[in-house]
Design a protein that fits this description.
It holds the Pfam family PAN_1. InterPro entries: Fibrinogen-like_C, Fibrinogen_a/b/g_C_1, Fibrinogen_a/b/g_C_dom, Pan_app. 39% of the residues are buried. The longest helix has 11 residues. Strand 4 and strand 5 form a beta hairpin. This protein has 5 helices and 22 strands. The protein is elongated. It has 2 domains: 81 residues, Hepatocyte Growth Factor; 224 residues, no CATH class. By secondary structure, it is mostly beta strands.
Length: 355
């Protein structure tokens, strides 16, 4: 565990029209950036001999610790702290970081005499609130794990930054738990028109499906709920595995006989009107045995909506961690399907990405 380090008074720097002597190109950039206006920033440089072991946004070269934290301030809007390697001349010795030590486990701040750790205090940068927020602030952000803030708590999510315009936030199973993060879905799901689902196959590969309403229902929003099947003005069909308590609920239109997956129609003939049209995603924290509903006839493991949906999947080039994949229940009533992913022959779970 890292020892407590006394914080020195905030180190302020104010530049107006003039450069500081770092290196020629950095001076030119700094002058261009701050010409005609005051340029103020504040940082904590008290953690000498420490390195924060967390995600590095970018590696850059710096002439000094001051140069390193300045590049955090100027080069990367998501940067909130930096590690400066003192013993590495002529190389990319400055690590620009997305988080600060107070948000990380105590053991993440490690003694390392080769490094000094700096924290950007002004401008005060808060963690982003979604992957869409990250992509808006940093158009070049790549897919991967990021930290966001939900209900004043830091959550590590996976961001898909390329497919279908990017900005999809994939939710780890640990974030779906009653009594915590009540605003998770409302914060992440704002366009109400599309959801990205990744399917984990048993051979280790992953495929993606992009879910939208059928073309005849373009104005009908998708419904995503957290730990409930009650939406605005309507109660949807309850999942068979709702006894597990924690889940995410995705309902496609109750007025249509299917949905679009990767722009392909997944349809069936319900024969009668039913509001049972949903996916439910269970983290199954207590490792409970899934419902035995319809296990007397496994016809929907070879045909039906669930099989047709999975068959639209397209291969992912980058795989995401297993802690994002949920036990998945699908129920499209009156002949569509009832199934859960513990029964699937070729796959074993689904991850859900919201935007």
């Amino acid at each position: 565990m890292a020892k407590e380090v006394r914080r020195e008074p905030c180190k302020h720097w104010s530049l107006r029209f003039g450069p500081i002597l770092l290196n020629f190109w950095f001076v030119i950039f700094l002058n261009f950036h701050s010409f005609g206006e005051g340029f103020n920033f504040c940082f904590d440089g008290s953690k000498e001999g420490y390195r924060l072991d967390t995600k590095v946004i970018k590696h850059v070269h710096a002439e000094s610790g001051l140069d390193c934290i300045l590049q955090c301030r100027l080069q990367e809007i998501l940067c909130r702290s930096a590690n400066f390697r003192k013993t590495c001349e002529g190389q990319e010795n400055c690590e620009l970081l997305e988080s600060v030590d107070s948000e990380e486990p105590a053991e993440s701040l490690k003694n390392d005499e080769n490094f000094d750790h700096y924290i950007l205090l002004q401008p005060k940068r808060k963690p982003p609130i979604s992957c869409k927020d990250i992509l808006t602030k940093s158009a070049g952000a790549t897919s991967g794990l990021y930290k966001i803030s939900v209900d004043n708590k830091v959550v590590t999510v996976y961001c898909e930054m390329v497919l279908h315009g990017g900005g999809f936030t994939f939710i780890p199973k640990s974030a779906v738990k009653k009594g915590t993060l009540p605003n998770l879905v409302s914060q992440l799901f704002t366009n109400h028109a599309e959801v990205l689902l990744y399917i984990q196959k048993k051979n280790g590969s992953q495929i993606h499906t992009h879910i939208r309403q059928l073309k005849e229902q373009p104005q009908t929003p998708l419904i995503v709920l957290q730990n409930t099947n009650s939406g605005p003005g309507i109660t949807y069909s309850s999942p068979q595995n709702s006894f597990m308590l924690d889940y995410l609920y995705l309902s496609t239109s109750i007025y249509a006989n299917g949905f679009l997956s990767n722009y392909m129609e997944v349809k069936y003939n319900p024969g009668s009107r039913t509001i049972t049209r949903y996916f439910a995603f269970f983290p199954n924290h207590r490792e409970q045995k899934p419902s035995t509903s319809h296990d007397h006839d496994l016809v929907y493991e070879t045909r039906g909506v669930a099989v047709d949906w999975r068959n639209t999947g397209m291969v992912l080039t980058e795989r995401i961690p297993s802690n994002f994949f949920y036990l998945t229940e699908m129920h499209y009533g009156a002949g569509g399907c009832y199934t859960s992913s513990d029964r699937w022959v070729e796959a074993n779970g689904t991850a859900i990405g919201l935007r």
